Amino acid sequence: MMKLFAAAALALSIVSGTSVSAAAQSRPDFSGIWIASTADISTLLLPGEEISFTAYGAERYKKADMANSPSYKCLPYGPTRGLQSTNPFQIIQAPDLLAIITEHIDYRLIYADGRGHPEDILDYPEWMGHSTGKWEGDTIVVDTIAMREETWLDTAGFEHSDKLHLTERLQKTGPDNFRITVTVEDPVFFTKPFTYSRVARRMPKDVRLMPARCADNENSLADAVQGVQGPEHKNPPKLSR
Q1: Which residue, 141, 140, 146, 151, is CA-closest to 117?
Q2: With contact defined as beta carbons under 8 Å apart, do 48 and 111 qualify?
Q3: pLDDT of 135-156, one tens digit each?
């Protein structure tokens, strides 16, 4: 009888392993070097979406100074702006993990093995936040929290608080492109969530990542002039009165 149970357990493990392997192989492959540059997410809003500030968010926006951009201070860009810069990024994909490397000397890990966020993650925020992912057919849905509030949502001047919550959907739309749809939720800055979308395209095979550091003559604090330039959004957000 024990031999029968052992044989059944072995057969189940083999079948389960095959099933898991087949599922992993059927998932789209996001590996490669991509670019999805956009300075202004207000131009990417889905139909019917709007960016509406709370009173606090509106005051912060009115006082926003482009000289305070994290890029001038050699700080990491954060999860959204990091994938929207003029520089490419690389995705390395494993069955239960996606690693994203940016030229701004940072990386992002998306855990797709069923784990949740650490219970104490909000006490230890990270530049790229903490990301978990789950597969829904050909799309990986990424949930990210615990981002440091020094980062910006985009280059044009949207800030956020440490209560920021991102939901991103990465959907392969062809061999050389995939769509990134982002829902931003931050009750400190915005009165309601908003969603925007863009397409990432694959870079040619001869492109490689070239790390960008302030030490390598990138923008630095010395180049910033305070009080000259405010936010640069083409579609101004709704400001609470």
Answers
A1: 146
A2: no
A3: 999 999 999 999 999 999 999 9
CA distance 229 to 25: 49
pLDDT digits (tens, 9 = 90+) for 79-98: 999 999 889 999 999 999 99
Phi, psi of 22 (to 5 degrees): -65, -40
pLDDT recorded at residue 227: 63
**Largest separation between any pair of C-alpha atoms in the chain:** 81
End-to-end Cα, the chain, rounded Å:
75
* Contacts made by residues 236-239, CB under 8 angstroms, sequence distance 24+: 236/42, 237/42, 237/50, 237/51, 237/52, 237/53, 237/61, 237/158, 238/50, 238/51, 238/52, 238/53, 239/53, 239/58, 239/61, 239/62
Using an 8 Å Cβ cutoff, are 49 and 192 in contact?
A: no
Number of Cβ within 10 Å of residue 35's Cβ equals 16
- pTM of the predicted protein model: 0.86
